[in-house]
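User: Could you walk me through two proteins back to back? I'd like the raw sequence and the structure tokens for each, with a short line separating them so I can tell where one ends and the next begins.

Assistant: Of course. Protein one, sequence then structure:
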Amino acid sequence: MQNPANSTVVSDFAELPATASHGLLRIEYRWVNEVAVNAPIAVFLHEGLGSIAMWRDWPQSLCERLGMRGLVYSRPGYGLSTPREHDVKWPVDFMTEQARDILPALLDALDVGMQERRRMWLIGHSDGGSITLLYAALHPNELAGAVAIAPHVFVEDISVESIAQTKELYETTDLRSKLSRYHADVDSAFYGWNDIWLNPAFREWNIASELAAIKQPLLAVQGHDDNYGTMAQIDTIAERVPHAQLVKLDACGHSPHRDAPGALNEAIAAFISRQR
């Protein structure tokens, strides 16, 4: 099946069995830079409204720069993966479920063994950055290191305000039409993300206390002009994970891989090269 936004890219699918936390899932995924067959794997975790298609060619270009093979996938509810049923609300701990249950199950389905996982890097953006942090905390012996780009560690007013504004744009402008190019069920994707972030109960969500369990190398990146979070997010990471390295990018908003790809790629490449 083809990705919604790119007719030249063909997705593969993995079937994940039902568990106590989720039903049977069909996950859209794609390998990039497949020529690097013996190289470490970089797993890319997309933002709250992201998908394989929304990454565009950044994972490919970064993997070529790093000499890695990349795994890109659309989380449940996004892209061409199993959509969220419209009457289902994401739970407050939905990102923990993604790190604890979904990603490990996907790696199992793709026969990514423990030896490969110990060489694996996670690279996550926004919600995907939070899932990256949680996976690193929950599975400290199953990865080589992690890169969290504009991650959320706790809920800030600026995040809620921007997400509320995005809802208004979705319902009153052509934003819905634009996003529909990247998701088979665009309302499933949008409202799954928007409803949980605007749920009053989610204001108490905070994973700072869990970060101390992260033992592997960690890079956290934030743009100074991010309208979804402040530097307090990655500063909190540094407080809880003393070995973490921070990069703060000028003239960069919430999406460094689009706003400042050169600076981001350089920072990631330099960081990972120091760990090898």
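----
Protein two, same layout:
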Amino acid sequence: MIVNRWSGLGLLVSAMFALWLLLASPPSLLGVDTGHVGMVLLITTAWVSLFAVSRLPRDAVAEAASPGEWNAWIGTVFMAAAVAYLVSNVDAFRAATVWNDPVTGRVVRNLVALLIAWSVLRGVLARRWSEAVTEDERDREIAAKAAGWGRFGLVAFCVGVAGVLGLSPQDRLQWASHLVIANLLIFGLMLSCLLEYLGTAVYYWRDRH
């Protein structure tokens, strides 16, 4: 139990340090891209955590949460990290003048790496539950409700962006370059996914309690 407690604390500290590297540290330190290091550390922490969970008896994992809830919580964490990372680097996109700007390219590569890692983790989770029933009527009902969170977030975001672009004087839209607008649209999609994952996790949590 002591080993498990200290292992969990170590993983938590590692994840917090990775998030600090991603969101609050200098862009580079001693010539090293801190964002890339943080992304690698966060992905590694997630892999180690998943490996630790996979070593537990399946009954113990199922008692803690259903497959759908595990998927929702992990998706929420990954999407929240991706959204926060994009927001923390918004000044880089505003300053960029060409599509192949090296600074924005670094941010995009880190985001793509994070989303690819999440896709792989989803596949691993699916194999973990391949012999169990992972979806029933309750899961489908929760998925339908949570999808409403995502749709509402995307619609509200699009209406807000359209209102700002349509109603603001032209001299106040110097920031709205093609690159910024393109990344705003991507941000809207990421925010929609985050809300859907969060809604799914909340509905599972409420149902379990």
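The chain has a mean pLDDT of 77.

Let me know if you want the two compared in more detail.
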